[in-house]
Amino acid sequence: MPSTTNMRGNRAANNKHRTKILIADSEAVFRVGLKKVFGLEDDLRVVAQAENALQLVAMVRSFRPDVALVQQEILLDGHDDPVRRIQNESPACKVILTGAQLTTAEINSLFQNGVCGIIPRSAQPEEFVESVRRVVRGETVRPLQMENGEKPSVAAYGDQKVRPVDTLTPREKAIISCLTQGWRNRDIAQHLTITEQTVKNHLRSIYDKVGVSDRLELALYAIHQRLDLPPVVPYS
Question: What pTM does this model have?
Answer without folding.
Answer: 0.60
